[in-house]
Design brief:
The complex is a heterodimer. By secondary structure, chain A is mainly α. Helices cover 57% and strands 3% of the residues of chain A. In chain A, the strands form two sheets. Chain A has a two-stranded antiparallel ribbon with strand order 1-2. Chain A has a two-stranded antiparallel ribbon with strand order 3-4. In chain A, helix 7 packs parallel to helix 14 and helix 13 runs antiparallel to helix 16. Chain A is globular and about 65 Å long. Chain A starts with a helix and ends with a helix. The N terminus of chain A is likely disordered. Chain B is mainly α. Chain B has two domains: 194 residues, no CATH class; 173 residues, M75 peptidase, HXXE motif (A middle domain of Talin 1, Up-down Bundle), CATH 1.20.1420.20. Chain B starts with a helix and ends in a 12-residue tail after the last helix. The chains are: A mainly alpha, B mainly alpha. At the A-B interface, helix 1, strand 3 and strand 4 of A face helix 1 of B.
């Protein structure tokens, strides 16, 4: 509680005094950046991202049911693909959207990389299968090395596989990268999507899509934005007002957590400002300014997964030192998910992930080999934390709090 | 006051930018209070004697349960119930001490999570298949489960006893469940007590550091959190509907006992108040504790006399409690405003403890609402 207050008090100062990489960009004075994320044409709103909201809600329901031992693999897998009316809400069932087809599906990283895209989708399916086949049958068993079951974390009860991993956590945190980060950074904000076909020409003319109030480029940008702020509990016009109270479980939630770390205070505001400025730049046809905002968003949203990976690995390390395995495994399970999400980050300087996919896979194997988290050493956690921090130009201490 | 905090924060933060130390902001005047003597008083005169006393009660409770299981009569039920009530009351004298082995074992989680999951208890007792070591079974054991097993199974004592006699085809399961719950209460209590006596006492007393890992910082956080979460919210706020706006009498402590909940609340509050003032267990003698520490700081710094303010507010809490019925669930049903008034008095104390006291002692709060994921 106190911490949040601190962040709020020092937010402004923290940002200017601690960050080293931002050259403040002064937008063209002729471009009107609105106070809130509100854009209109002929009095009609041009902002729409209902498809993103739908997928965020689907993910929320799937996360909940991954902890319901009555569930079958088929039912959970159907929720992942939206088949056979698997959701409790008619709106979700009747939607043409689904989660799975958008996993590892960005134009930039995966359009000609279907082997890896398919492998990643299968990995998510395999987690569903593992939860149902290995963890659910041991729901009333005490977990041990090599044995799935319950483990206490403080006053909570967690359910782990034989390697000590909460499969539901690795699923959820990996989806933050594979769905949300990938779609925002590498799909909707990529030039391949924003500038596809005659998008630029039409946008400059103000030519809207048939029957719609927005141009295609405007809409693509908003779809990127929707993956971040599309949960109905978030004020999408003024997301800063929702920092302290929202029900998002995906990227927004962790952007807020990173923002609450004094070392990164202000990152949320800077990110939302970039979304707003970039959108205004599209309206004004200033594509250079737009792309500068893309770089800020790519850097910041990539940083979220990096900071949270390091945070959880270090949190797991200190819990292990205190012989609190429940807390250690919970943190490390989340850390494994965020580590997986780093595959989908985007370094604006290279156009690639901050760490190579095979390097990340190597870390994943180090953490999950043998009896997995039961065997992990503090040295391994430190060396991975340091490598990630280096790649992002931050320190382990900054991310670990 | 508030301005001063802001400045401290800024100063601390600017330092943190350059190096990564997380040292405390600290008060500039020297605090020479003898923390070691205070820790000694806590351990030797309050905590360990409280656990010793309580372990006697849990042993009697286990014995009464075994006797009842061997001979399930209304007479033995009455004896078991008396042992239960006595133990539950004395449990309140150890409840604030969630540190050391108690923390490692989640002692309080296994002894007093309420409301109990009556449906799960029934199902598992009838199947005669259960594992009380599972963390997921915390609300199926401890005092709340026992309360259900000896007070909640039927309307009359005859009806309750019938669950444990050959009239009931599942009586073996009920007997096993009942004795397992009391055996576990006793075993966990002995484990915590043994750890205090064997090694933890010295570890606790010798860790006089004023950092966040020192005994005073850590214990104080646990102590204030206990007050906020268990005493204020659990016993009063949640049943009264103070947070949700929906009164929830079924969430009161000792729900199936007729007249126990207010006594438990008063005992817990008395324990908390005595500890604050350094009063030895079961004695009128006092030694160094928060009161003396705060008075010492007041004598060198001036300002408000926080110890006095806290004691005044504690007296107000006790006075307000006169208006409460002996059955707090019934109180919520008949006039929840009296419960809400109790909550308000407790809340004033939370502010004094969590803000004024912790600031004076230069202790940062180490607990926040968990993120629920």
């Amino acid at each position: 509680m106190k911490k949040i207050l601190f962040a709020a008090l020092v937010g402004g100062i923290a940002f200017t005094s601690c960050s080293t990489d931002d050259d403040v960009i002064y937008p063209d004075p002729s471009i009107e950046v609105p106070e809130t994320y509100t854009f209109t044409r002929n009095g009609e709103s041009t902002v729409s991202f209902s498809g993103q909201t739908t997928r965020i809600l689907m993910a929320g329901e799937l996360f909940g049911d991954l902890l319901n031992p009555e569930m079958t693999e088929e039912k959970l897998s159907n929720m992942f693909s939206n088949e056979e009316n698997p959701f409790s809400s008619e709106d979700l069932n009747s939607s043409s959207k689904d989660i799975k087809s958008k996993v590892a599906a960005s134009k930039l990283y995966f359009s000609s990389n279907s082997v890896e895209s398919n492998a990643i989708k299968s990995t998510f399916e395999s987690w569903i299968s593992e939860q149902v086949t290995d963890v659910f049958p041991n729901w009333e068993t005490l977990a041990e090395e090599g044995v799935a079951g319950q483990i206490a974390q403080g006053d909570k009860t967690r359910y782990v596989n034989g390697k000590g991993i909460e499969v539901n956590q690795i699923f959820a945190k990996s989806l933050i990268g594979a769905l949300v980060t990938d779609q925002i950074l590498n799909n909707y904000l990529s030039e391949a999507v924003l500038d596809e076909a005659d998008n630029t020409e039409k946008n400059s003319e103000g030519a809207t899509e048939e029957g719609k109030s927005y141009t295609t480029m405007e809409h693509k940008w908003d779809e990127a934005y929707g993956y971040l702020v599309g949960h109905p509990s978030i004020s999408s016009e003024s997301p800063l007002a929702s920092l302290d109270s929202h029900e998002d479980k995906l990227l927004f939630n962790y952007l807020v957590k990173v923002d609450n770390d004094p070392d990164f205070a202000g990152i949320a505001e800077e990110t939302f400002e970039a979304f707003k400025t970039g959108r205004a730049a599209i309206v004004a046809g200033d594509y250079e300014l737009r792309d500068e905002q893309v770089a800020i968003i790519r850097r910041n949203l990539s940083l979220v997964s990096a900071v949270r990976t390091i945070y959880y690995l270090q949190n797991g390390k200190s819990a292990m030192a205190n012989e609190d395995l429940g807390t250690a495994f919970h943190g490390l399970s989340e850390g494994l998910g965020f580590l997986y999400s780093l595959r989908f980050t985007h370094n604006p300087e290279t156009g690639e992930p901050y760490l190579a996919p095979e390097v990340l896979l190597g870390y994943h194997e180090q953490l999950t080999a043998g009896n997995g988290l039961w065997d992990v050493t503090p040295e391994t956690l430190d060396s991975i934390s340091e490598a990630i921090a280096d790649a992002f130009g931050i320190t382990v201490a900054q991310a670990a709090e | 006051m508030f301005k001063k905090i802001k400045l401290l924060v800024l100063a601390a933060f600017i330092v943190a930018c350059n190096s990564d130390d997380s040292g405390k902001s600290g008060n500039t005047d020297t605090d020479n209070f003898d923390r070691g003597a205070m820790l000694e008083n806590w351990a030797d005169n309050i905590i360990i004697p409280s656990f010793e006393n309580f372990s006697g009660k849990t042993a009697s409770l286990e014995e009464a349960a075994v006797n009842f299981a061997e001979d399930p009569s209304e007479g033995n039920l009455a004896i078991l119930r008396a042992a239960f009530e006595e133990a539950y009351l004395e449990y309140q004298t150890v409840a604030p001490f969630e540190i050391g082995e108690a923390e490692a074992l989640d002692y309080h989680g296994f002894l007093n999570i309420y409301p109990a999951d009556a449906a799960a208890i029934t199902a598992k007792a009838e199947a005669n298949s259960f594992n009380l070591e599972l963390p997921g079974s915390r609300d199926e054991q401890g005092f709340p489960a026992l309360d259900y097993l000896i007070n909640g199974l039927g309307e009359t004592d005859t009806e309750i006893v019938s669950f444990y006699t050959s009239e009931n085809e599942n009586s073996e399961g009920y007997k096993n469940y009942l004795t397992a719950v009391t055996a576990r209460i006793n075993a966990l209590t002995n484990a915590v007590l043994a750890d205090w006596k064997n090694s933890y006492r010295d570890i606790f007393v010798n860790n006089t550091s004023s950092s966040s890992t020192g005994s005073v910082d850590k214990f104080t956080n646990d102590f204030v959190m206990y007050f906020e979460m268990d005493l204020r919210s659990g016993k009063i706020g949640i049943p009264a509907g103070a947070f949700s706006g929906n009164p929830a009498p079924e969430t009161a402590e000792a729900y199936y006992s007729e007249d126990l909940s207010k006594q438990l609340y008063l005992k817990a509050f008395e324990t908390f108040r005595n500890f604050f003032n350094g009063k030895h267990f079961n004695s009128s003698q006092t030694g160094p504790s928060y009161k003396q520490y705060l008075e010492y700081l007041h004598s060198i710094r001036g300002g408000e006399n926080i110890a006095a303010l806290i004691n005044e507010q504690m007296a107000d809490v006790v006075q307000q409690a006169d208006a409460l019925q002996s059955n707090l669930a019934e109180q919520v049903r008949t006039d929840k405003d009296v419960m809400l008034a109790a909550f308000d008095e407790l809340q004033k104390l939370v502010v004094l403890l969590k803000i004024d006291m912790l600031q004076a002692l230069d202790i940062s709060v180490d607990y926040v609402d968990t993120d629920g994921d």
